[in-house]
Amino acid sequence: MGRLSWPLRPLPDGRGEVWRWDLSELSELPAARAALRTRLGVAGFPPPDEDTAGERLVLAFDELASNALRHGESPVVATVVAGSGGWLLDVSDRASETLPAPAVDRDPAKGGLGLHLVARLSVAHGWYVDEGCKHVWACLPTVVQNRRPAMA
């Protein structure tokens, strides 16, 4: 796997409906994913078998939230801003000194490639620290098209 950095960038200006989950342990993720899928359906996004954009958001949500729960410090807050131009996903935790570090030269069978995956799914991504919280974010399109993945 090539070298990828997770760039230090401020959060883009996200305007739209805000969906938020407070998470304290990995066992809460299945319910959070189900709630996110429900919100997508209520907002009028097609089911995954018709359009994969919503499932890509759910996958990125799961990857960033599970990273924060495994490697960060509680509380973990996962936020999705559903805007007209796409989704802004922001996951924060209290481990502000622990930077997001994509795996480098790791056997894919050993895992740890979630940040690489989120970078490929997103049109932009980054992280920043605010008031003692580390925020890791990604912008995802609401429509899957032939496009180039975000560059580091």
TrEMBL record:
Residue intervals of the Histidine kinase/HSP90-like ATPase domain: 25-138
Pfam families given in the database record: HATPase_c_2
Segments crossing the lipid bilayer: none
Keywords: Kinase, Serine/threonine-protein kinase, Transferase
Domain of life: Bacteria
Entry GO MF terms: protein serine/threonine kinase activity
Name of the featured protein: Histidine kinase/HSP90-like ATPase domain-containing protein
Species per Swiss-Prot/TrEMBL record: Blastococcus colisei
Taxon lineage: Bacteria, Bacillati, Actinomycetota, Actinomycetes, Geodermatophilales
